[in-house]
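Good morning C.,

I know you're traveling, so I'll keep this short. The sequence:
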Amino acid sequence: MSDLIFTHITELLPNIQPFEHISNLKKINGIERQDYYKVKAYLNALPHDIQININTAGKEILSCLHPDLSEYLVETLISKRPFSSPEQALESLRKILPNSQLNDATFPSALISTKSEYFVLEATIKMDNSLLIAKTIFCRKNAKISVINRSYYQSQ
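The tokens, ready to paste straight into the viewer:
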């Protein structure tokens, strides 16, 4: 779904700039208020491009790394973790996708890492019959942790 959203947005705004906050989606023509609230819980905007930590990323994220990665192949990749380096992860990907041409054009190695600077904490708060989902994005840099974004939404 993230590829479809990005493709749609880049078609609407050919000179797209990175979003500083997820609320920037509301400024795009064609994104209705109800659509924004549907996807808001699944998207994050960070101050710069980040690499995916191949050791901790979930199935949903890993399946977006390459078009040939099926759910089964992602499970296979997860079973080979942890990786000590991005090169080791790429070698495992080459073994999992033997017929694919993995190179910088089809899979930029700059996409993955074995370290993380950003972390997401999700909490579910139950009040009577309502569920509130709280999501906080933290950044760890130079032995300091700071809050990048905090959001709340009510679960259906």
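Safe travels,
E.
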